[in-house]
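hiii so um. not sure if this is the right channel but i have a protein structure encoded as tokens and i wanna go backwards to a sequence. like what aa goes where. can anyone help
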């Protein structure tokens, strides 16, 4: 779809975004993780526009983004461990799933029928925008539902430019992966989605075990099996590249037959996981444009940020019969 959205930077972008949000419109904004599609979390029509623009199923909850702990406490109830994590990692790429405060101004569509609410405090442009707007913003990734999350304004414009009025250009996002999502239940810390904050970092602050794996059902954004998917099929952990495949490489050593790949992009030639995370979505999008029917992916360490990278790749490679969610 041809882009018709305005693409603005700086003060002009801030004023335009505030004006559109006040009208109940949605705007694409940069965060430190990926670009988000933001709307007033207290306005049902604005929240519905997010779902409409993304083609996102309404049983998939959204994250409410805040500018302060005080704003978060107006609609969410913090247990002691969640508060400790917020005080350490906010602003930053950590989302907390908390008990919703009954009677809050958050529109029910944001929670997708759950009695909990996902909350994050971003850095940068998003933080300033929310602070000036004075209300929380619901903001999933600014992409069509189930597809690759955008890490640049150009990627947003190509995908959603015909459905929204403004893309704020803040350059490439520094983290490049969505936020880590955790939930405290019965005093136990559960990892619902790995992301920009690693498991060891969480354990170091929480002082308790991090439990992986959850009960069936969608408890937070980004939990559907098929997600973050390019148009091409994705084949993981390859030792050999097949004819006609594109190659998503990692580190200094190449898979057998790499020289015959349709296209090659390396997440990090030196094997740095932070660099790999920041390049993941942009490299997947570029290889998807190569014309290859399959993107072969070399093995990537599961340590640290590698857990989140492998999580996104596994969802990108999953069967797509029921693919219909976004982060």
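sure thing!! here u go:
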């Amino acid at each position: 779809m041809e882009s018709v959205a305005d693409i603005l930077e700086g003060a002009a972008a801030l004023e335009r975004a505030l004006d559109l949000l006040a009208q109940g419109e949605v705007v694409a904004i940069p965060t430190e993780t990926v670009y988000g599609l933001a709307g007033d979390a207290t306005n049902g029509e604005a929240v519905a526009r997010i779902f409409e623009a993304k083609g996102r199923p309404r049983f998939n909850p959204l994250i409410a983004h805040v500018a302060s702990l005080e704003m978060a406490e107006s609609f969410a109830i913090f247990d002691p461990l969640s508060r400790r994590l917020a005080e350490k990692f906010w602003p930053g790429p950590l989302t907390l799933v908390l008990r919703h405060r009954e009677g809050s101004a958050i529109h029910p569509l944001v929670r997708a029928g759950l009695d909990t609410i996902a909350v994050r405090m971003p850095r940068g442009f998003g933080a300033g925008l929310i602070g000036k707007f004075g209300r929380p913003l619901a903001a999933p990734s600014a992409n069509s539902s189930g597809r690759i999350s955008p890490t640049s304004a150009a990627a947003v414009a190509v995908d959603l430019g015909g459905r929204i009025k403004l893309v704020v250009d803040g350059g490439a996002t520094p983290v490049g992966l969505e936020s880590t999502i955790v939930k405290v239940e019965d005093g136990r810390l559960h990892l619902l989605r790995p992301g920009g904050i690693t498991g060891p970092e969480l354990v170091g602050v929480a002082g308790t075990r991090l439990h992986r794996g959850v009960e069936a059902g969608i408890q937070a954004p980004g939990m559907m099996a098929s997600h973050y998917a390019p148009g091409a099929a994705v084949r993981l952990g390859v030792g050999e590249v097949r004819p006609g495949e594109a190659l998503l490489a990692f580190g200094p050593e190449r898979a057998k037959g790499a020289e015959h790949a349709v296209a090659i992009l390396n997440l990090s030639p030196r094997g740095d996981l932070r660099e790999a995370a920041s390049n993941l979505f942009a490299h997947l999008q570029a290889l998807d444009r190569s014309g290859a029917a399959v993107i072969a992916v070399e093995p990537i360490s599961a340590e640290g940020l590698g857990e989140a990278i492998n999580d996104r790749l596994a969802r990108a490679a999953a069967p797509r019969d029921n693919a219909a969610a976004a982060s």
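oh and The radius of gyration is 19 Å.
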